[in-house]
């Protein structure tokens, strides 16, 4: 397994990490994702560790804390061999203190996560969403306290807009607080909005992308196809309204290109979609999920090989969409492009 730096930090993370959203199985959304118990989870963790996947991502909101509990049981006795990543800020109840990133909520959420995970420190503690009602200075000073106390080692964010991330980084620099190292984002061949602003921001500011839902909310499994009904077993029957919207024809166009490359490579559609992400700028780790051992082993086939430049170009063309203003002039007009080279060119310039 390839290991990469998490953004500009010193933490090395595997190119693939495991998402524990299927652990626990409580509630309408997470129950549809999966209901892996501690025994099954331990087996999946065994397979991950054998393959070099050492980072496991969860959140307090996943199955109301049950995901953290199951993950804690699954890693018991080998805590020093894994990287634990969890998230907080989304509502855990209806009370006024059950959501957000206030000082009180963050301290309580951290203590609760430590208890459920059965550990005394969290490797990566992330804000699951931006809290517009809490001053950023309060958020960052609290996270600084948690780091200084040894309860948290690295910090990250998830689902922030560009201005929210940049303002937070600027305030952290002003007051000498720890900077965010990671941004957990939605990014896939059928969801490339990340590239318009957040990817250039990540490159400029050293934010490593941790990619969630890399298979487009389950649409790039190879089971969603033009002219065919959605399989009866697809979780999209229950979860489509929770996830990022996408037009059917767009999905079919991308799947057609994936089919062509599958014929050339002998790889399946999910493996190709994951491999494409692993070659994209700023991506530190792609988070894969699995409801069972078979799914996990299939996803592991995304590493130890590389799509050719021609195959990458084919997928880029099939999945390309016109960016909204103010981004589209920089993609389509020469004068704008001369002043702002594409991110891929900027990566090469940065490396040089």
TrEMBL record:
Residues 16-318 form the NADP-dependent oxidoreductase domain. This is Aldo/keto reductase. InterPro entries: AKR, AKR_Detox_Biosynth, Aldo/ket_reductase_CS, NAD(P)_OxRdtase_dom_sf, NADP_OxRdtase_dom. Signal peptide: none annotated. SUPFAM superfamilies: NAD(P)-linked oxidoreductase. It comes from Streptomyces ureilyticus. It holds the Pfam family Aldo_ket_red. The lineage of its organism: Bacteria, Bacillati, Actinomycetota, Actinomycetes, Kitasatosporales. PROSITE patterns: ALDOKETO_REDUCTASE_2 (PS00062).
């Amino acid at each position: 397994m390839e290991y990469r730096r998490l953004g500009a930090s010193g933490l090395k993370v595997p190119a693939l990490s495991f998402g524990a959203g299927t652990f626990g199985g409580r509630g309408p959304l997470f129950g549809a994702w999966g209901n892996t118990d501690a025994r099954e989870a331990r087996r999946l963790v065994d397979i991950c560790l054998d393959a070099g996947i050492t980072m496991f991502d969860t959140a307090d909101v996943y199955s109301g804390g049950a995901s953290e509990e199951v993950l804690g049981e699954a890693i018991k006795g080998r805590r020093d061999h894994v990287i634990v990543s969890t998230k907080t800020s989304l509502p855990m109840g209806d009370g006024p203190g059950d959501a957000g990133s206030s000082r009180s909520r963050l301290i309580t959420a951290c203590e609760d996560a430590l208890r459920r995970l059965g550990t005394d420190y969290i490797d990566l503690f992330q804000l699951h969403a931006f809290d517009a009602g809490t001053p950023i200075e309060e958020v960052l000073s609290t996270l600084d306290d948690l780091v200084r106390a040894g309860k948290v080692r690295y910090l990250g964010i998830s689902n922030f807009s560009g201005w929210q991330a940049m303002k937070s980084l600027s305030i952290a620099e002003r007051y000498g607080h720890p900077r965010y190292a990671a941004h957990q984002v939605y990014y896939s061949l059928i969801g490339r909005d990340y590239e318009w602003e957040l990817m250039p921001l990540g490159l400029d500011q050293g934010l490593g992308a941790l990619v969630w839902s890399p298979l487009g909310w389950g649409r790039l499994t190879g089971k969603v196809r033009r002219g065919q009904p959605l399989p009866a077993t697809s979780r999209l029957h229950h979860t489509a309204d929770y996830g990022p919207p996408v037009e059917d024809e767009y999905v079919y166009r991308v799947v057609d290109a994936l089919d062509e490359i599958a014929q050339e490579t002998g790889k399946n559609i999910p493996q190709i979609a994951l491999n494409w992400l692993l070659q994209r700028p700023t991506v530190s780790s792609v988070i894969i999920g699995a409801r069972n051992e078979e799914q996990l082993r299939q996803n592991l086939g995304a590493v130890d090989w590389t799509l050719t430049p021609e195959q990458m170009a084919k997928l880029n063309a099939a999945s390309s969409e016109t960016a909204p203003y103010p981004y589209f002039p920089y993609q389509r007009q020469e004068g704008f492009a001369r002043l702002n080279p594409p991110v891929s060119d900027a990566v090469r310039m940065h490396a040089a």
